Amino acid sequence: MIPRWKVEREAKRIYSQVMRIPWYLYGSVSKSRHDRSKHSAQHITEGQKALSDNLVILLIYQPKGVLKSTLSQIDYLASKGFSTLVVSNAPLSAPDLAQLVARTFRVIQRPNIGYDFGGYRDGVLHCLENGIRPQNLIIMNDSIWFPLTDSCDLVEAAQKHSADIFGVSYFKHPKKPELSHLQSYFFRFNGKTVSDPFFEKYWRDMPVSNNRYTVIRKCEMGLTNSFKSRGFSVGYLYDNDIVLNHLLALPLSELKDVARYLSKIAPKNAAIIAKIDAAQDWHSEAKKSFAENARLTVFLTFEPKVMISGLKSPVLKKDRSGLYKMQRDELRRLGMIGEINSDIGREIKDWDAR
Predict the structure, then answer these.
(1) Structural contact between residues 180 and 172, judged by C-beta atoms closer than 8 angstroms
(2) Number of structural domains in the chain
(3) In a domain, 7, yes or no
(4) Do residues 265 and 323 lie in contact, with contact meaning Cβ atoms separated by under 8 Å?
(5) Model confidence over 97-119: pLDDT tens digits?
(6) Which of 85, 164, 329, 353 has an alpha carbon 20 to 30 Å from 283's alpha carbon atom?
(7) What is the CB neighbour count within 10 angstroms for residue 35?
(8) Is residue 107 domain-resident?
C-alpha cells in the first residue's frame, strides 16, 4: 500500500504543475509589481556586526520563533570570518530580532513571496544595489541543520575550492542532463562570479513565483545550468557517483542494511531492492541497480550511518515529510544524536512531535 504522505506529495506536484499556467501568462507582470513595491514592504534593521569580505545571505522562515540552532549557525559562520545578512520570510518577534541583530551585519524582513529564491533574490539585489560584492558569497536557507558536527569544514572547503560556484550536493539526472543541478540549500559564489555582469543580470531576470514547481524548475534547476552555459565552473562535495562508490566499498552486511533502509522509505525503492535480493550474485546486482537508479543515490535521503559516519555530511534535512521523518527515526534508533551538534541534537529529539 502506498503511504499517505506519498499520495499527498504526488497530488501537490500535479496541482503545482497545473498552476504554473497563470505564471507563464502573468509572471513578468507579477515580478515587476514586486520590484516596485518591495522596498516599502521590507523592514531593514542594521546589525551590530561589521561587514567583512566574506558574506552569507541566510534565508529563514521560522514563524514560530527563531531556532537556537540558527543562532548557533550564525555564530559558527562568524567564527569562520563570514558576516551574515539574514533575510526572513516571516515577521520576527522583538526578542528574536534583537538576537539576530546582535549577531549579524543586517536583517531584512520581507513578505513570503517567491519561496526561498524570492528571498535569495531580494538579498542578492540588496547587496548589489548597495555596492556590496564580497570575495566569497554563500547563499543558504534554513531547510537544513548546519553545521551538523563541531568538526565540520564545509566553509573552508567552499572557500578553497577552485570552482566559481560550489555546493554541497549535485544531483545528476541519468537521462536528462539539463535537469542536473546543485541542491539549492547551499551555494558559494566566488568574487569573480559576483563581480561578473551576468551575476546581476541572472538575479534581476529570475522569476518571482509562489508556484513551487516553477521555483524548482526555473530557479533551483535553472541556476546551475544558466551559469554553466556561460562558462562558470561548478564544484561540489557529493554527487550520485560519489555516493555510489562509497556504498560499493561498504562490507556486504552494511550494504544490505542500507538496501533494507532504502526499501523502507519508498515503494519504488522496494521493488528494486526485491530484485537485488532475488539475485544469485547479490553484490553484482546491487552495483548494477544502484548505478542505474539515480534515486537510490540521492544524497540527503540516505541512512544516517552512511550520511554522518561514512560520508561526513555537514547537513541534515529538516523536512517533516515521510522519508525524512524515517531518517530521523533511524538516527534516534541508532543512538547517533550524541554524534551531532548539541543544539541540533536537542531539536531533533522532539522535532517530529511539534
Answers:
(1) yes
(2) 2
(3) no
(4) yes
(5) 999 999 999 999 999 998 899 99
(6) 329
(7) 14
(8) yes
